[in-house]
Design brief:
By secondary structure, the chain is an alpha+beta fold. It folds into 2 domains: about 5-180, Transcription factor LuxR-like, autoinducer-binding domain (Beta-Lactamase, 2-Layer Sandwich); about 195-260, Winged helix-like DNA-binding domain superfamily/Winged helix DNA-binding domain (Arc Repressor Mutant, subunit A, Orthogonal Bundle). About 50% of the residues lie in helices and about 10% in strands. It is built from 12 helices and 5 strands. The protein is globular.
């Protein structure tokens, strides 16, 4: 890596790590991954699995999915854990065999593993083409953890030095926030599903939650009613809903402060692209 490129990497990585200190909730964690970490590690979902991966006893493994893939949530992973265990066992054996903390599976659709994992999630993973896996062991508890980055890219460039530098911080962030419990998963999943919306669409849907009509929203945002209707049409398509009432029901589980947190700038162009 050239000196100039190295300096760019260090500046980007340092900024990402600095942002990690502000993370307090699982939604903060998701936003950080998609708008900061993705600059260095392009991905559409990060699945973290930890526990006794050697035995993979039913109910003993813990899962966390930070995903912007439609319909692929932590609750879905948990509900299908009996099926995903076979896929995870394949990745675990590959991790042990490679004698390296990380490895990449490119052109996933050409592997037998692809058939197994996409049989479990045929709709959610239809566009996923590669995986980047990073593993680490907690020497105190004996537990192991696999971090699996799912990407639509057909090939991922693995930079071991970069992974060794950034992954301990990702691991630390996930350890310091509360794990998703069954009684809060639906709330967080609802909030994460809204992350596919643009800033303007979030403004529109926030006013829907406040009970405003199309005419009132148009006046507040200084846009026409037709423009409001166009935004609503795109919102319904992105959230896979058909009516205003469904949007209100979805928003019922999402505090207004979370909607504000989702109004984010686009991530800057990666120095590694």
């Amino acid at each position: 890596m050239k000196k100039e490129s190295t300096n760019q990497y260090l500046n980007t990585a340092s900024a990402i790590i600095e942002r990690s200190y502000q993370i307090k909730t699982h939604l903060d964690y998701f936003v950080w991954l998609q708008n900061s970490v993705a600059e260095l590690i392009p991905h559409d979902m990060l699945l973290a699995v930890w526990g006794d991966l050697r035995q993979q006893q039913d109910g003993q493994l813990k899962y966390d999915a930070a995903s912007n893939l439609k319909g692929l949530t932590t609750s879905l992973i948990i509900s299908t854990s009996d099926k995903t265990s076979h896929f995870l066992n394949d990745l675990y054996e590959m991790w042990v065999a490679c004698r390296n903390p990380c490895f990449v599976v490119d052109e996933l659709q050409h592997t037998e593993m692809c058939q197994r994992v996409k049989a479990i999630f045929p709709e959610q993973l239809i566009e996923i083409n590669s995986l980047l896996v990073y593993g680490m062991t907690d020497e105190r508890s004996g537990d192991e953890c696999l971090y699996i980055f799912f990407s639509k890219e057909h090939a991922l460039e693995m930079k071991k030095q970069m992974m060794d530098f950034i992954m301990p911080h990702i691991d630390h962030v996930l350890r310091k926030i509360k794990p998703l419990q069954s009684d809060v998963i639906d709330t967080v999943d609802s909030a994460l599903s809204l992350s596919v919306l643009s800033e303007r669409e979030i403004e529109v849907i926030s006013w829907i939650k406040a009970g405003k009509t199309n005419q009132e929203i148009g006046m507040i945002l200084s846009i026409s009613q037709n423009t409001v209707k166009s935004h609503l049409k795109r919102i319904f398509q992105k959230l896979n809903i058909g009516r205003r009432a469904q949007a209100v029901a979805l928003l019922a589980n999402v505090p207004s402060v979370k909607l504000k947190q989702l109004q984010l700038p686009q991530a800057e162009h990666s120095v590694f692209s």
